[in-house]
Specification:
By secondary structure, the protein is of the alpha/beta class. It starts with about 30 loop residues before the first helix and ends with a helix. The protein is built from 15 helices and 7 strands. The protein has helices at about 30-55, 70-80, 95-100, 105, 110, 120-125, 135-150, 165-180, 210-215, 225-240, 270-280, 280-295, 300-320, 330, 340-365; strands spanning about 85, 155-160, 185-190, 190-195, 195, 220, 245-250.
């Protein structure tokens, strides 16, 4: 059973200075992979910045930023194959975009629309879940169904440390282990469940230690080291695909910005604590590593930055365009065939809209 226990310290392949460290179990990803990860890190950071600005401009209703957690997001999107699925949380927009979803489509739900903005089946990405831990149950159900159909599918289920305090987390972990489903749980431990610190959520040595209680292996990884997260997740994904069952990976990271735009994080954490994590920024360490190894030069860096700015510009243009709203959409997509009750509700709303339009027209004529 000791092989199920996580390490005493998180797996790290690249430290805060960008220096590489060999590991007996986990291999350093290839330079091309790390350069692509850096490109996605830069675009992810720019996406977080742009979306935060769009909230302030009133173009988004809310945006839970993953600023500082981009290494987890990028690695999660990179390790999955074409037939695999990602089950994200509300904070995992960078991972959603990393799977190929257009940023403007990923923002539809956060703008306040009624749907996710993209077709989950096209991208292998479930709609982002706002309730804590509910997506974990969806994930293990999907993985179990894929297993029963004999499909070569692995599911990666994302959650935060706060979700581990929910009953749904326990149920998902237990079901996954008992039925040996091909799922990997990635817990992004950013230190806070909104304002509640980890120490007030669990007395376990780490969240990864919870895995052995369910009969699955757990591992800890430096969540700001994209190389390490890539390597650890790849190992867990390969294990699940080979029939080895579920795993739990705890990524130690930090939420650099407030929980959402409605949160005042100065009420529950000191600025000095946030400042300390700035030195562990995943973008800074990866850039330093690539520069030292010769895998990144000024020209490549410029190309990457320009690509991120194009993405941000296209997102701004899309969000500044007012959407065309069809009230009937509230009833059109509830079921494949509209029920008499829904038809009655739509007719009631339609008649009210027509009366309002008529009254407005008559008022204008006078």
């Amino acid at each position: 059973m000791t092989d199920m226990l996580p390490r005493e310290s998180p797996v790290q392949l690249i430290d805060e200075t960008g220096a590489a460290h060999a590991d007996e179990q986990y291999r350093m990803p290839a330079s091309d992979t790390l350069r692509e990860a850096y490109r996605m890190l830069v675009e992810g950071r720019r996406l977080n910045e742009q979306c935060t600005a769009l909230v302030k401009q009133g173009r988004l209703a809310v945006y839970p930023s993953s600023h500082g957690q981009e290494a987890c997001q990028v690695a999660a999107s990179m390790v999955l194959g074409d037939g695999d699925w990602l089950f994200p949380t509300y904070r995992d927009t960078v991972a959603v975009v990393g799977r190929g979803v257009r940023p403007s489509d990923a923002m539809v739900m956060l703008r306040g629309d009624w749907h996710a903005g993209y077709d989950p089946a096209v991208y292998g990405v479930a709609p982002q879940a706002t309730p804590l831990a509910t997506q974990l149950l969806h994930a293990i159900g999907f993985a179990q169904a894929a297993k029963m159909r004999g499909e070569d599918t692995v599911v990666l289920a994302l959650c935060g440390d706060g979700a581990t305090s929910e009953g749904d987390f326990h149920e998902a972990m237990n079901f996954a282990a008992v039925f040996h489903v091909p799922v990997v749980f990635l817990v992004q431990n950013n230190g806070f469940a909104i304002s509640v610190p980890l120490a007030r959520q669990t007395a376990a040595p780490s969240l990864a230690h919870k895995a052995i209680g369910y009969g699955m292996p757990g591992q800890r990884v430096d969540g700001n080291d994209v190389a390490a997260v890539l390597s650890v997740l790849t190992d867990a994904i390969d294990r699940a695909r080979a029939g080895g069952g579920p795993s739990l990976v705890e990524a130690h990271t930090y939420r650099m910005q407030p929980h959402t735009n409605a949160d005042d994080d100065t009420r529950y954490r000191e600025r000095e604590e946030v400042q300390q994590w700035l030195e562990r920024d995943p973008l800074i360490r990866m850039k330093a590593h690539l520069r030292t190894s010769g895998a990144l030069d000024d020209a490549v860096e410029q190309t990457i930055r320009e690509g991120a700015e194009r993405m941000a510009s296209e997102l701004r243009d899309a969000m500044n365009a007012d959407p065309e709203i069809d009230p009937e959409d509230m009833f059109r997509w509830v079921t494949a065939q509209r029920s008499p009750q829904l038809e009655e509700q739509w007719e009631l709303l339609r008649s009210e809209i027509e009366r309002e339009q008529m009254a407005t027209s008559e008022g204008g004529a006078r």
